[in-house]
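Quick illustration, no need to memorize.
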Amino acid sequence: MSVDAATLERWEGLRSVRLARTVLEEAWGLSLILTTDEGPLAHRRGGVVRSSGPSCRAALFSREGFTRCDAFYRGVREGESRCHLGLQVWTEPVVIREGDPPVAHLVVSGFSSPAEEVDRTRVAHALSALGVDDATTADAARKLPVVDPASRRPVRAVLRVLAEELRQHERGRDDERRARPVGLWGLVGGSPQMEAVFELLPRLAASDATVLVLGESGTGKELVARALHDHGHRKSRPFVAQNCAAMPDDLLESALFGHVRGAFSGASRSQEGLFGAADGGTLFLDEVGEMSAALQVKLLRVLQDGSYLPVGATAPRKANVRIVAATHRDLARGVEEGTFRQDLFYRLHVLPIRLPPLRERLGDLRLLVDAFVADLPPTVPRRVAESTWECLEHYRWPGNVRELRAEVFRWQITAADMTELRPEHLSPEIGAAAGYTPVGSPTVRAAVRGEATLAEAVESLEREIISEGLTRTGGNRTRLAKELGISRTTLGERLKRYGFE
């Protein structure tokens, strides 16, 4: 296990890390590097670790040196070792939970100890073999820091204390994450993809810059736009939304920018338009990628200086509006293909936020279902069978969260007054995703897929019918035998065979 790049970058900004780095540098001339089994953060980006010692920095500028350094950091372990330059290295693991493997290592590199063992010539030869020029080699070997043996204990103590600080920091974040509601501002989710969205939203809400929300239809783009407005400083002003794909060009232009009286046939009075209506607030432009080239030019002008021209007007008007745009299209590809203006793309792409499709965050499925069911009457069952979850989790959800919400609301009819939501209450296409048949026990579905025998499927089906019948009849065997068209004696044999008595 190892931490991701975002966590490593967050650690680099912690006060405790900066303090430890300063102490090690000023007291012993040592360089602190945070690394995981994927290497230091800079190596993941193909760059040079700035905090490394002079000899390491020199090696990193050669291709062979970079490869060797990267391999060394990826394989670093706790304790003392020698790197490929012959330098002594001390490391300390970062463990978040007792008994778990390290998620990262703290590395102090670029020193030799004790003083009588310092072999600057060996380091110089190693650098030369990597193709480093003589002047850089000599300078790096000369600046090699030397640590007295008596300093080993305090250096290791600094690393241990820092490792414990990082451990406590991450455990605190985990506890805080578990304590807070799963989601933010009406958006539900606990997956890493949605956690990244929730981390970004408060910063976007505090800003007045244009936001571009990217995501497939049904992922919740308007919910994000509404959340940004409701939690920003414009929340007391209007929030206005317009789907740019819902109108032809001429009507959309009039709807957005307004028109003056007599501008066209039927314009018996002036209309201010949505920019005027949203003045001081937020205008949400959904499916902005569907705008024509002519309207893209007009939108660009508003984004540039806040001015727009109503249809038929000769004098421009001003509007103080924050734009939140959304699209399911790849606008960068649209720029390449010439269907979307490059200058408008850069104006919109100031603060992009991507909403993942539901199929990429199926771990949120149960949270979303619970949230939607909570809004329904108590006649809808709160308990969901595992076979039902199997169907829901196998389905691809092309309509995303919007489709899931519609499916849950459908249960008001299909599962009213039931004690448990079962696969037969689902839409046919959702049940079919997991091979469900109208009598969908797991064994029957397995037989449909060729993973169980016919005899096993028949037995499973018979057991399920009897189990459901006992529940339906309140255990009345005479009534159940009559409904099933078998004798009470035969029913008794089946009950005994399947363990019902």
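The mean pLDDT is 81.
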